[in-house]
Design brief:
427 residues; alpha+beta; seven-stranded mixed beta sheet; two-stranded parallel ribbon; 23 helices; 9 strands; elongated
């Protein structure tokens, strides 16, 4: 970890913004997650600035300014083709909605601004023009100790902004830090404020947590502090064994937030309210469908003795999803069964199936519907679909049958048999 920052550690465009502020009688400080990551020796992105200049003054100083959050003192300055959030120093204020201050109180002291921030590791500021680091709440010490500690009184911080408790859990995973005991103890009493946070913001924090090396750290914190019970009670109420298995699956899954979400929800895959929960927390239709597909077709205990059974399974899953389903099956097998033998076997069978280019849909047959109508003098109608489905079933049983001649012969025989059956029924 780096405990000393130099101006050359800051990107040139950011320094230029601070220099422009200085030439106009103001100061600019690098703040937030970018500074925290830089101090941790990690790549930083989304460079944010704080300034003692009021928003209207910032708009006069810089030629291209977008009032993205001007009601809260934030504007976006366009510079060298990038956007940088520049926020005027703010003081304490009431948070009656549990998320945003009722009104903005501008201040001129950077330390007063830092005092209203959530955690000490985020309450550090650096002025690259003056080469001065501000750390009034010993955030550097907590970075060294890998500790998440609230600024000032934890209960007050969490009562101001309900999202902060979830951010604490998320940081436990993404930073791989531990919560300060007093900070963690303040979470449960302030959950009523958390429950007023919008579903979209909760979803966003979950997805960020899923990008961590071990998302389980976040969900362990969420469960023991009551955050999870307030978000998805059925998940929090899993017995300790099943919950531990779900967390193992989350950590084993690839760093795809939706795949990891499905892994976490795997024990609840048969619950009727699962999709309702996904809708309530604003997951997009495509995301919900993907979760449902993973939970439906992951087959950790599947044992297909015959190749035709594998082909029929693959047809139900759909060719585009076979690789993801196979990989997910291995993850849940290891987490919930402690063995991947069957899942690895199925994955191998599916991979072989893909390389063989075996038809899995009627569109992939060697005989298409137009040819079938022409050869059998058929008109568009239900019988055409019936015949194509029959041919696909024959090919799934024996892929060698997938030739134009063979399929046409069998389609003609099936069509004749059906006409004879219908004629007999009429008599």
């Amino acid at each position: 970890m780096c405990t000393r920052i130099r101006p050359e550690d800051i990107p040139a465009p950011v320094i230029e913004l601070c220099q422009t502020l200085a030439r106009n009688g103001h100061r600019g400080w690098v703040v937030g997650g970018c500074l925290r990551d830089l101090l941790r020796g990690q790549p930083a992105a989304d460079w944010d600035l704080a300034t003692d200049a009021r928003p209207e003054r910032v708009a006069k100083i810089f030629p291209r300014v977008i009032p993205t959050g001007i009601q809260h003192g934030t504007v976006t300055v366009r510079h060298r083709g990038e956007g940088y959030e520049v926020t005027t120093l703010r003081g304490e204020g009431a948070y009656s909605d549990g998320r945003r201050p009722d009104h903005v109180e501008y201040v001129s002291d950077i330390r007063e601004d830092l005092s209203r921030r959530d955690f000490t590791i985020n309450a550090i500021a650096y002025d690259p023009v003056a080469d001065a680091l501000e750390d009034p709440f010993e955030g550097l010490r907590d970075l060294e100790a890998r500790t998440i500690r609230a600024v000032g009184e934890p209960a007050r911080r969490f009562s101001e902004d309900g999202l902060r408790v979830l951010r604490a859990a998320r940081f436990a995973a993404t930073l791989e830090f531990e919560l300060d005991p007093a900070t963690e103890a303040a979470i449960a009493p302030t959950l009523p404020t958390f429950q007023r946070v919008s579903a979209e913001r909760v979803r966003e924090e979950w997805l960020k947590a899923f990008k961590a090396r071990a998302p389980s750290r976040a969900f362990e914190v969420m469960r023991r502090t009551g955050i999870l019970a307030a978000t998805y009670a059925e998940l929090a109420e899993l017995d300790d064994v099943r919950f531990a298995q779900a967390l193992k699956a989350v950590d084993l899954a690839p760093r795809d937030p939706i795949v990891r979400l499905a892994a976490l929800l795997y024990p609840l895959r048969q619950e009727a309210g699962l999709d309702d929960w996904l809708q309530r927390y604003r997951y997009a239709n495509a995301e919900r469908e993907r979760v449902a597909r993973l939970l439906r077709w992951a087959a950790p205990e599947a044992s297909f003795e015959h190749a035709a059974e594998v082909r029929r399974f693959a047809r139900q899953v759909g060719r585009p999803w076979l690789a993801e389903i196979a990989a997910f099956g291995i993850v849940v097998s290891e987490a919930f069964l402690g063995s991947t033998v069957q899942a690895e076997r199925l994955a191998g069978q599916l991979r072989e199936l893909v390389t063989q280019d075996t038809p899995l849909t009627t569109r992939e047959l060697a005989l298409d519907g137009r040819t079938l109508m022409s050869e059998l003098a058929l008109k568009p109608g239900p019988i055409l679909g019936v015949l194509l489905d029959h041919l696909l079933e024959l090919v799934l049983e024996d892929p060698a049958r997938n030739t134009r001649e063979s399929l046409l012969e069998r389609a003609r025989a099936e069509y004749d048999a059906r006409r004879l059956s219908m004629d007999t029924a009429k008599e």
